[in-house]
Design brief:
Layout (H helix, E strand, L loop, with lengths): L4 E4 L5 H14 L8 H5 L3 H9 L2 E7 L2 E10 L8 E9 L8 H14 L4 E7 L3 H9 L3 E12 L2 E11 L11
Parallel strand pairs: 4-5
Antiparallel strand pairs: 1-2, 2-3, 3-4, 5-7, 6-7
Length: about 170
């Protein structure tokens, strides 16, 4: 997309990251596990610390940050082959212009070097996000009922996976 660049955020980008994260939690509270109140109480330094230990990408246009997406490697020796795409958000006025695709591409590119698969969860009613992920090869493998509890009720999440390379089963597995 012309005029939009995506790059990994670093500690110096903490104010941008905090601003887009708080906007996401305010405008799309049903899409995230955290809340605006919880995150707004955290200082910029806490967001810098999160960036120091995480892979988070920011999408920028000439006006500033317009989107974000994170990638977390699963902990533990038997799960470290997996990553989780989290925190995906694009400003409403930038949706439908390819910004989300650029962010998903950045996450996939970052994962390809060291991971075998990426998982994610998306609110079942978010058809646009599900279609974006499907376009990049993510497939649904289940639904977590009542995954999120909001003041308006429960939300189910679709669990999705993208395999980055062929996987073989270890000998002796069924």
């Amino acid at each position: 997309m012309p005029g939009v660049t995506v790059r990994r955020l670093i500690e110096a980008d903490a104010a941008d990251y905090r601003a887009i994260r708080l906007e996401a939690l305010q405008r799309a509270p049903q899409a995230f596990g955290s809340t605006y109140a919880a995150e707004a109480a955290r200082p910029v330094a806490a967001f810098a610390e999160r960036l120091a230990g995480s892979v988070v990408f920011g999408a920028y246009d000439m006006a500033g940050i317009v989107g974000m997406a994170g990638l977390a490697r699963s902990p533990g020796p038997k799960e470290s082959h997996k990553g989780f795409l989290w925190g995906m958000y694009v400003r409403a006025e930038m949706r439908g212009q390819g910004v989300g695709a650029l962010l998903v591409e950045a996450v996939i590119a970052a994962a390809e070097a060291t991971l075998e698969q990426i998982t994610l969860s998306v609110v079942q009613e978010n058809a646009a996000a599900r279609a974006l992920y499907e376009r990049f090869g993510f497939t649904a493998y289940g639904v977590e009922p009542h995954a999120l509890k909001t003041p308006d009720g429960y939300l189910d999440e679709v669990l999705m996976v993208k395999f980055l390379r062929p996987t073989g089963r270890p000998q002796g597995s069924s």
